[in-house]
Amino acid sequence: MALIELRDVAKTYPPRRRGGDPVRAVDGVTLDVNEGEILGVVGYSGAGKSTLARLINALEPVTRGTVTVAGQELTRMSEGELQKVRRGIGMIFQQFNLFHSRTVWGNIAYPLKVAGVPTSQHQARISELLHFVGLADKAHSYPEQLSGGQKQRVGIARALAASPKILLADEATSALDPETTQDVVDLLRRVNRELGVTIVVITHEMEVVKNLAHRVVVMENGTVVESGSTFDVFADPSHQVTQRFVRTVVDDVPSQAVVEELRRRHPGRLVTVAFREGSVSQTEVFGELISRGVGFQLVYGGIEEVQGRTFGNLTIELTGDRVDEAVRALSELVAVREVS
Ligand SMILES: Nc1ncnc2c1ncn2[C@@H]1O[C@H](COP(=O)(O)OP(=O)(O)OP(=O)(O)O)[C@@H](O)[C@H]1O
């Protein structure tokens, strides 16, 4: 059984205007989050990602369907039981949501108090958390004295204070620069690997998903339009929304404007060849060309690495007498697209 299970979950809000239509923020989502995994939830603004997070951590009731966390179905729980579930789920946010009038120490102590951890145990726990997030020297600083990345580290320490099994990260890196984002991504990976915390990462940043998530779901208009392993989603995005997201970080297929430029400079036959680690190697593909005396030149594309496996699209200009025969042979081995 998955740690989090959503079955046909819907959340509808009342119309924004009198006489308007109800807002279907989440509209029939079924998904599992397995224990120990990092799931990326991707979608444009308004797709329903934050609403989904609020349904998972029981901040709001569903309109339809069921949410089950660690075997317990939320709709069947009393408010007291729901509070316990919420305590087992840490949250971090884009704007960090720290208490500005409290020190770093005070911010991390807060959830310990709420969880009823005796004050005598605070010192050891807070010190352990500060070391884990690399802020041992900032215990007595106030949030305004910290950088964005440091604030998010405090947010992570605070979210982990009561030892949750699940961490929900809602656009947690969206306010950070790329380098700081990578530091926070590295820290979240340690949270997952070293502490065994299951993480749901809600984001529109594909670089974060690529570097962090094991699996991805893509949302549009409250529904899941695509899901799969991070490798498969990046290597072979099928839905148009997914393709647009993936293109923000993987730009290995030439756009129409680039094709026109390539055509001007390369009179030979242009084809795009898709490579996937674990299937046919580049040596085999280029071997087919060489054995037929076909000239080739790489004119566009690149090879990416996701989850330790490589994939990519290479656009090649082919020249020589036996090009047609070579393209037929290549098509037996890999996906080949004509560039026109
Ligand atoms: N409390 C609410 N009352 C009414 N409508 C809401 C409420 N919360 C969200 N919505 C609407 O539900 C839809 C989904 O919103 P949601 O915030 O879940 O999307 P999102 O993918 O997280 O987008 P963003 O990244 O912009 O927050 C939007 O149309 C939003 O206006």
From TrEMBL:
<keyword id="KW-1003">Cell membrane</keyword>
<dbReference type="GO" id="GO:0005886">
    <property type="term" value="C:plasma membrane"/>
</dbReference>
<dbReference type="InterPro" id="IPR041701">
    <property type="entry name" value="MetN_ABC"/>
</dbReference>
<comment type="function">
    <text>Part of the ABC transporter FtsEX involved in cellular division. Has ATPase activity.</text>
</comment>
<comment type="similarity">
    <text>Belongs to the ABC transporter superfamily.</text>
</comment>
<dbReference type="GO" id="GO:0006865">
    <property type="term" value="P:amino acid transport"/>
</dbReference>
<protein>
    <submittedName>
        <fullName>Methionine ABC transporter ATP-binding protein</fullName>
    </submittedName>
</protein>
<comment type="subunit">
    <text>Homodimer. Forms a membrane-associated complex with FtsX.</text>
</comment>
<dbReference type="InterPro" id="IPR018449">
    <property type="entry name" value="NIL_domain"/>
</dbReference>
<dbReference type="InterPro" id="IPR017871">
    <property type="entry name" value="ABC_transporter-like_CS"/>
</dbReference>
<keyword id="KW-1278">Translocase</keyword>
<keyword id="KW-0029">Amino-acid transport</keyword>
<dbReference type="InterPro" id="IPR045865">
    <property type="entry name" value="ACT-like_dom_sf"/>
</dbReference>
<keyword id="KW-0813">Transport</keyword>
<dbReference type="InterPro" id="IPR027417">
    <property type="entry name" value="P-loop_NTPase"/>
</dbReference>
<dbReference type="InterPro" id="IPR003439">
    <property type="entry name" value="ABC_transporter-like_ATP-bd"/>
</dbReference>
<feature type="domain" description="ABC transporter">
    <location>
        <begin position="4"/>
        <end position="246"/>
    </location>
</feature>
<dbReference type="GO" id="GO:0016887">
    <property type="term" value="F:ATP hydrolysis activity"/>
</dbReference>
<keyword id="KW-0547">Nucleotide-binding</keyword>
<dbReference type="GO" id="GO:0005524">
    <property type="term" value="F:ATP binding"/>
</dbReference>
<dbReference type="Pfam" id="PF00005">
    <property type="entry name" value="ABC_tran"/>
</dbReference>
<keyword id="KW-0067">ATP-binding</keyword>
<dbReference type="InterPro" id="IPR050086">
    <property type="entry name" value="MetN_ABC_transporter-like"/>
</dbReference>
<keyword id="KW-0472">Membrane</keyword>
<dbReference type="Pfam" id="PF09383">
    <property type="entry name" value="NIL"/>
</dbReference>
<dbReference type="InterPro" id="IPR003593">
    <property type="entry name" value="AAA+_ATPase"/>
</dbReference>
